[in-house]
Amino acid sequence: MLVNLRLCRWTRADYETAELHAMDGVVRVDDPAEADVVVVPSTRRVGPADVPRARLVITTTSGFDNLDVPALRAEGVRCARLPLARRDAVVETTLAMMLSLTRRLGDFGVTARAGAWDRSNLHRYDARLLGRVGVVGMGVIGTRVASVLRALGAEVVELRRGDALPAELDVLTLHASLTAENARMLDTRTLANLAPGCVVINTARGKLMDVDAAYAAVVAGHLGGLGVDVFPEEPARLDRFSHPRVIVTPHAAGWHPRLGEAIADGVRDAVSACLRGEPVPWAI
Question: CA 88 → CA 3, 53, 256, distances in Å?
Fold first, then answer.
């Protein structure tokens, strides 16, 4: 068993309020260059030069594109993530966006706030059921989204790395990790190939999609709706996304009141495994 393992929590999001658990054999340090274990949020990029003595780097998120995993592993540094901390919150946000957009609640809201009881014109809103939903990325979050969708009666099309996007989808939701190969997988061309009226959701990584092209496709009437929680550059200006069939949130899909505690629990489990010389949960 390792003793006096040095742990550094190198930056944390403002909402990650819970402190990490005290653990026997673990000493807290402030300098990541002096740490055996380094814990970081998605906003902190990490390569070997940043953590010269590290044995383990943990990102507190599900995605891990902030870690230079090949370079770290080449130096003998293990990498891990905490996908369960935010999973259910992201799934619920995804479903909330999806259902709001397919049922055209934004359009109904605009009319209702204008004072109209527009029940005689319901057909004009084109509200629809979920229908055929493509789920891109069948990891921890994508798998749970697919399970919930099936429980709601949707037909789920599971899409993994390298799969072509089917043309006939009612909804497309992104849950893939960001890689060099899939960056901007949804651009002007691929968006144009989606079925008219398709709703697109991205709660994964902002650089998977050209968000401006997607917004333009909604305004033009090709896409039936757009839900976006993540953006290529953050913080992003959200006031320009004003269409009633567009929902934007400030990278908030994974937040819930127990998030800080869930992160602390995940770090404790990973560090405890490291101390015992066992495989680390959710190793990358």
Answer: 35, 34, 9
* pLDDT (0 to 100) of residue 167: 87
Give per-residue pLDDT as tens, 187-201: 999 999 999 999 999
Rounded Cα gap, residues 7 and 28, in angstroms: 5
- Conformation bin of residue 282: beta by default, left when phi > 0, alpha when psi is -120 to 50: left
In this chain, the answer to whether the domains covering 5-81+257-276 and 87-248 adopt an identical fold is yes
Locus of tokens 């992160």:
263
- 5: tokens are 């393992």
- Tokens for 236? 């992003």
Query: What is 87-248's CATH topology?
Result: Rossmann fold (3.40.50)
DSSP 91-121: HHHHHHHHHHHHTTHHHHHHHHHTT---GGG
Name residue, tokens 């650089």.
Answer: 207
